[in-house]
Amino acid sequence: MRIGLLTGGGDCPGLNAAIRAVVKQGTGEYGHTIIGFRNGWRGVVDGDVHPLGRQDIRNVLPVGGTLLGTARFHPREEDGSMDAVLATVEAEHLDALICIGGDGTLHAASRVAEAGVKIVAIPKTIDNDVEGTDLSIGFHTAVNIATEALDRVHTTAESHNRVMVVEVMGRHAGWIAVNSGIAGGAEVVLAPEEPFDIDQLVKFLRHRHRAHANFSIVVVAEGAVPREGSSMEFTQQLGRFGEIVAGSIGERVSAEIAERTGFDTRLTVLGHVQRGGEPTPTDRILGSRFGVAAVDAVSAGTSGVMTALRGERVKLVSLAEVAGRPKRVPEELLRVARVLA
Ligand code: F6P
């Protein structure tokens, strides 16, 4: 078989582990040819191919990012790029495509599958908001980075009697905020799932500083928003492609706390630090398992599915059923973050 492979959307640690597994399993176990595409769907549209052999995947396991490159680009019917994808699939004589991506890439993959191309997808995003899988590649590393940052911020907060606001990634879901907040002992976690009340937050901080502490850590997911009708109005700043501008909610929350409490307050925006560097063993293992499972699925003639971690097992789930449905943090986990404040 000739199998196309791409990584789309934002990069993350663990992608190279998945690429390596696809190449090793595909060429070694089945004798397939793996045709990589540079820069996600953009490379498929442009026919920018990078055939992948054993020499390309040497020493990549601990390396962050993606050796194929990636782009925030999705093929569309309206501008002819979907036709260009189909033309490349035909020109390269591909039997199937393995697409590694987050929600946008998977949504596009589902439409390419509808157009008749055999597709198997692998979920990755540090945001961990892909429906249907317990974990996406990159999330575990991001939580580790954010937790380490919170531990570090903690000691300086305490020394200076400060409120430290730490903004972490998470546009539609607060998985990184909630998990790193619990692991890093944050006093408050603001996640998109639960619009917050600034008055309550300020009341809590005042009480805490009066009663038993001289510092506080407030973790804010970049997609957090104030509750409608509360005393803080906020319009999310969006960039050219509709993406959230890093720091906008963090800056605002930090300013409101400083103004309303008079406490010395500082902001740290972790930003892309969360997406860089070495993957944790968990992400290397997850990427490897998903890569092997994707090749097995393609080889069995399966299409329109995504590899997913369900409990201890890697399973295949319907791509159409999960694409475009962000997975939110469940109430049970939000509650743990709340009660441990
Ligand atoms: O990949 C998800 C994500 O890291 C989001 O958490 C964040 O909002 C976005 O990507 C940033 O995207 P970019 O790298 O395009 O600035």
UniProtKB/TrEMBL annotation:
This is ATP-dependent 6-phosphofructokinase. Its cofactor is Mg(2+). It catalyses: beta-D-fructose 6-phosphate + ATP = beta-D-fructose 1,6-bisphosphate + ADP + H(+). Keywords: ATP-binding, Cytoplasm, Glycolysis, Kinase, Magnesium, Metal-binding, Nucleotide-binding, Transferase. It is an enzyme of class 2 (transferase). Its EC number is 2.7.1.11. Mg(2+) binds at residue 103. It comes from the Bacteria.
